[in-house]
Amino acid sequence: MKVSISSILDTVLNILYPRRCPVCDQALPFLKNKGEKKAAEICPECEKKLPLIRGSVCMKCGKPVDRIGAEYCPDCSSFRHAFDCGRAAFTYTGVMRESVFRIKYKGRREYLEYYGGILAGLFEERVRRWNPEVLIPVPMYWKKKNRRGFNQAEVLAGELSRRWGIPLETGVLSCCRDTAAQKSLGRKERRENLAGAFRLTKESLPWERVLLIDDVYTTGSTLDEAARLLRVGGAKKIYFLTLCIGKGKKAVCTEKNVWYT
């Protein structure tokens, strides 16, 4: 039986640096696949804990809506966003909050390979309909990126680019100052915090349809600021994908991912 060099390297690397479950962070076992051993991507029980978004969602931002027949969430009903529309895979609750925290602050960038696959599978058909010409990750201030070692939005966008064959462009938007953490701020404070934080590095863009990539959507302030600049550069249609989205103030998510109000 022939064993490929890449398979041997994967085995060695997994022994030295075992792949970890993106939910519980425990080392994952090898699985036999057509005669070759391949590391598992997530614990079967942990996969059931992921708060995957199901059911009706806001047509604008993709946030779950709690009222039957509602087209938009309360936020998008009362606020005009700069982007056209977007979607997210998970609600930003429970295990996803913990997982994203480990990605950002514990160096678990390898989780993004798994999550990139989830996003690619869930939204490939929709993205083909959007027909973006380029993927653009939301930028990170260079000092913060140096401290972390990577920009999670850029890594996630790279995974999607590889799977979909859509070009990735990381040099269009740049973050020109270090902003305060957004998580503790309200909408008004978030927008003030981001004002002037991004800049467009090109006077005019060669694309009309753009897909922005980020890790978490809460109020949409970050994506709005990025979309606003891209429109200045000539983009006509601006979509987004994020790993997670906030569930909104009126919705509650149980441990079994059941939505109620």
UniProtKB/TrEMBL annotation:
Residues covered by the Phosphoribosyltransferase domain: 153-250
Double zinc ribbon domain residues: 12-76
Entry superkingdom: Bacteria
Gene3D superfamilies per UniProt: 3.40.50.2020
Similarity comment text for this entry: Belongs to the ComF/GntX family.
PANTHER family reported in the protein's UniProt record: DNA UTILIZATION PROTEIN YHGH (PTHR47505:SF1)
The protein's name in its UniProt record: ComF family protein
Protein species of origin: Candidatus Choladousia intestinavium
Native organism taxonomy: Bacteria, Bacillati, Bacillota, Clostridia, Lachnospirales
